[in-house]
Amino acid sequence: MSSQRCQFIVQSGDENRLDKFLARQLPGQSRSRLQAIIKDGGVTVNETVATKSGLALLTGDKVSICIPEVVPVNLEPESIPLDIVFENEHLVIINKPAGMVVHPAPGHASGTLVHAALGNFGDLQGIGGEVRPGIVHRLDKDTSGLIIVAKNGKAHRWLQEQFRLRKVKKTYLALVDGKPPTPSGRVEAAIARDAAHRKQMTVVSDGRGRAAITEFHTVKQFNQHTLVEAHPLTGRTHQIRLHMAFLGCPIVGDLVYGRKKPSLDLERHFLHAYQISIILPGESEARTFQAELPADLQTILDQLI
Predict the structure, then answer these.
(1) Regarding beta strands 144-150 and 84-87, do their DSSP bridges make them parallel or antiparallel, or are they unpaired?
(2) Are 43 and 18 within 8 A, CB to CB?
(3) Cα separation, 103 vs 118, whole angstroms
(4) Cα separation of 55 and 53, whole Å?
(5) Is 194 part of the annotated catalytic residue set?
(6) Distance CA 233, CA 207 (A)
(7) Cα–Cα distance for residue pair 86/168, rounded to 1 Å
(8) Low-confidence residues of the chain, pLDDT below 70?
(9) What global pTM score does this model have?
(10) Domains in the chain, start-ordered, CATH in brackets?
């Protein structure tokens, strides 16, 4: 399969930023992939290479794009057992254990969720044109709970669109030190990469980072801790961890954004992707899936009661 070249003329009423225009013209391509192609110089506007996704287009502009062949990532499938919550011909919903890395990365060349998915569900390589085939969202290594893997390109694009339109409702359970300033609330605090610690994120003033919104409410109040439900309305890296710390009640066991010495005997942070509601490909009504607290987190709660 070779690369595909497409050309478009911007018509009156179709003026938009470059990535949005291409997403409308090429519904089979995800916006994130189109943005990557733009960044790599694969798009020209009026015969000039355009590398900014936000470039404003005008009526009559000639837009050309070269869509590269999807290159298999050549990852080796691994026979790793997975806790499957739901599966059909389009996707699988997995209850990821704490300690499992989702994507291959330096220091994690094997044993990831991607390797396990390839070993359990066949050839997912190339889906979405990414190194993380079939993965639409992510969980931190030490966060347990529900994550969705697409089995084919159509499902992958469907899921990306559901997340983009914020139609996916995710619920996390987090045990925090202290208590939030109000029993329920909404945090709107932008997030950016920490300039001093490149592997970490930080809350920044509006305009300096990406918008991030988390809603929360108290499930149970303990003497020195609070169990909260967190609902991220955006999907920024480390968002819930940062927003809870921003409120002055960091997640128990979070050594990066919370206390350097955990307040409870827990070897990871107390954050679990407990529930997800989503409209599945080919369906019109949302379904809700749940994964109960794993044993290590439930044990901590039992000790607090």
Answers:
(1) unpaired
(2) yes
(3) 12
(4) 6
(5) no
(6) 18
(7) 16
(8) 1-3, 28, 69-74, 106, 123-133
(9) 0.77
(10) 4-67 (3.10.290.10), 84-165 (3.30.2350.10), 169-275+285-304 (3.30.2350.10)
